[in-house]
Amino acid sequence: MSSLTLDAEALYSDLLRGMRQQLASYPQPPMLVGVASGGAWLALRLQKDLGLAGEAGILSSSMHRDDFSQRGLASSGQTLLPFDVNGAHLIVVDDVLYTGRTIRAVLNELFDYGRPASVKLVVLVDRGGRELPVQPDLAVARVALPASQSLELARAEDGKFSFQVQDHQA
Fold first, then answer.
1. What does pTM read for this prediction?
2. Of 165, 162, 128, the residue nearest 12 (C-alpha)
3. Are strands 161-167 and 149-155 parallel, antiparallel or unpaired?
4. How far apart are CA 80 and CA 33, in angstroms?
5. What is the full per-residue pLDDT of the chain (170 aa) written as tens digits?
6. Residue 62: helix, strand or coil by DSSP?
7. Of 6, 28, 160, 163, which one is least surrounded by beta carbons within 10 A?
8. Nearest 5°: CA angle at 16, between 57 and 44?
């Protein structure tokens, strides 16, 4: 395990503050859409904490991943969009941005449901290592990790967030 320590709850508080600033730039509140699973947890909690009407959506990357043949469907939940995507202003929420491939996949999934007016990306942590030209509109923290490690958001039964760093053998 790594010695990297990130306080996910403190970062969430910073994300909430940043989201309040983002929302001020919209004439009407945008719809939140979380990337399954960590991003979905964040979007659901943000929806409540920001007092936004309706429900946050959930986007799965499963069907549009470029490594689908290796990962299959088990890597992500199902897409659930409880609102019309066409013409909507959307904020896609994810926990950790790394290569950009998951975001590419969820954008493809999103456009299967319609054509939004705009899409912004907010993430809790940007760990660099981009393989595609994807950049967040808001990233609360930036960390550097070797490719041999993964960073994942975990959610306890009480809804509190924490991070887990996993070492992977080459």
1. 0.91
2. 162
3. antiparallel
4. 9
5. 446 689 999 999 999 999 999 999 999 899 999 999 899 999 999 999 999 999 999 999 888 766 645 555 555 579 999 999 999 999 999 999 999 999 999 999 999 999 999 999 999 999 999 999 999 999 999 999 999 999 999 999 999 999 999 998 65
6. helix
7. 28
8. 25
